Amino acid sequence: MPKSNKRDRLVQVATDLFQRQGYENVSLNDVARESSVLQGNIYYYFKTKRLLAIAVLKTWENQLVTALTALEEKHNPRERIIAFLEFANSMGEMYTAWGCPIANLSHALLSEPGENLDPAPCVYQVHLTWLKRQFEAIGYPAKEAELQSQQLLSELQGGIHLAHVMGYRELLETLLVRYCEQIRAL
To answer: Which helix (H) or strand (E) holds 113?
Structure first.
């Protein structure tokens, strides 16, 4: 297997394991075993589990940028925000089962003593910057657009968390349907 494929496979497997088992419960050896990479070889790609987690977050950030760029094909900013919310709703079953993978991994990394966390805020900043642009395109002044984007993302994350903790997917679905109605009314 070429080097880049091994690294990509390690990140892909880590993504799945971190989500299903929690960052704290996964070792580099677990990731190596599930990836069919010799345990000693994982250290060639990732010296620490933290560096592997950061690679997972960077991968999510890149995927998010790609997905949000694809939403730009929708001509109306309201339609773009609604498509964003509908995508979140389509992930409702996964969110209910395991929570938000970005939030979970970010929280785990922030909990590590003495470590600085750069990538997780970057993933959230991609969301916030994109949403702010959409609200500005609707006609909100910059400061209000920023507040709207923060509120939407905060409520979305809160809804995901409650759906997960309570095991109640409909809670998230109801929130997202309500938000879509509010966006249509803008």
So the answer is: none
Where do the DSSP E strands lie in the chain?
Answer: none
CATH number of the domain at 1-47, out of 3.40.50.150, 2.60.200.30, 1.10.10.60, 3.90.550.10? 1.10.10.60
- Cβ-based neighbour number of residue 13 at 10 Å: 21
**Distance between CA 174 and CA 46 in Å, rounded?**
41
Residue 127 DSSP one-character state: H
DSSP 8-state symbol, 107: H
Cα–Cα distance between 51 and 155 in angstroms, integer?
30
User: pLDDT by residue (tens digit) across 10-40?
Assistant: 999 999 999 999 999 999 999 999 999 988 8
- Rounded CA separation 55/105 (Å): 11
54-185: what CATH class?
Answer: mainly alpha
Domain with CATH 1.10.357.10 in the chain: 54-185
Span 45-88, pLDDT tens digits = 999 999 999 999 999 999 999 999 999 888 899 999 999 999 99
pTM higher than the cut 0.90: no
